[in-house]
Amino acid sequence: MQIIFVPERGHALTVSLFSKALLVVVASSLLFVFSSNLNAQAVLEEMDWAYAISPIFPAEEDDGTLYSLPGSEGRFTLNEARNRFGPADWYPQDHLPMPSIVAIGREAAGIMACSLCHYPTGQGKPENASVVGLEPGYFKQQLQDMRDGLRGSANTAKANTAMMMAFAVNMTDEEIEQAAEYYGAMDWNQWIEVVETDTVPLTFRRGGLHIPLEGDAAGEEPIGRRIIEMPVDPEGTELLRNPRAGFRALVPIGAVAAGEAMATTGGDKSIACAICHGEQLQGLGQVPALRGRSPSYLARQLFDFQQGTRQGVWSPLMDAVVENLTGDDIINLTAYLGSLPAEF
């Protein structure tokens, strides 16, 4: 659309100047938005390792073979091991009696068993979360935040975040209470080994995990600025959901020491972790433990806080912590935290 003012030259000049100014403002705004989007995308790509977004692979066909795991008396088919509403319990002796919501979920409401992804022990995996040993009040608040749409992911392709939000909406208060009390009554066990290295195995992504390539495709590549957290037993973890098979987190050389310095002092850009998380980072009341937890999980949470997609009731306490963190800072911090033993 064109607007032309002919009668008075002065008015035409005024409108012309206004139009030019308006165009400059609009163009500048569009450039800012475009630049912001590019910057946000670049930052998201920098943190891609922590989210490990995977292509969708067809499920391994169940041919009826019965599988076993060391130390387990159970023998299960693939479909039994990965049953969303009652997955195989390989080691019943490793955990307390499970409430129904943990053991089988509630299929009528579309709520999968907690034990499917987080395991009966609550140890979890890098693509989700360890939920064992959490103070029940904190556990319940996180599910309430998910119910309220306050705990999302900075990476919208992280499908299991949306799934958890849907589960939380459909869970009853009693089910949330039962899950919180069950997992809160057990202790976290160290099962992540942090290793500093220059190179890492070539990997592909499946189910949110970094899986080493095998055979002719196997090889090594520089680690760069990322953490590669892999299952020690890829088949046992990815296919059979072995709750005793741990993980190895490969981190850049020097990351642990750099992370310790930042965690203990805050450096010149953050706040010492112990102020809220306890002197030994073992957790303090409804503030969760950090020591020994998955670097990938912790990195996602720091980034989600920073990007404003995790906005729960307690989230404002993290604002000053994450505001000035770089991708390297997040790598260093989470490498250090993951390296801490559960016992202290």
UniProtKB/TrEMBL annotation:
SUPFAM superfamilies: Cytochrome c (SSF46626). Keywords: Electron transport, Heme, Iron, Membrane, Metal-binding, Transmembrane, Transmembrane helix, Transport. Gene3D superfamilies: Cytochrome c-like domain (1.10.760.10). GO terms for molecular function: electron transfer activity; heme binding; metal ion binding. The keyword Zinc does not apply. It comes from the Bacteria. The chain crosses the membrane at residues 12-34. Residues 100-187, 254-341 form the Cytochrome c domain. It holds the Pfam family Cytochrom_C. The keyword Ubl conjugation does not apply. PROSITE patterns: CYTC (PS51007). This is Cytochrome c domain-containing protein.
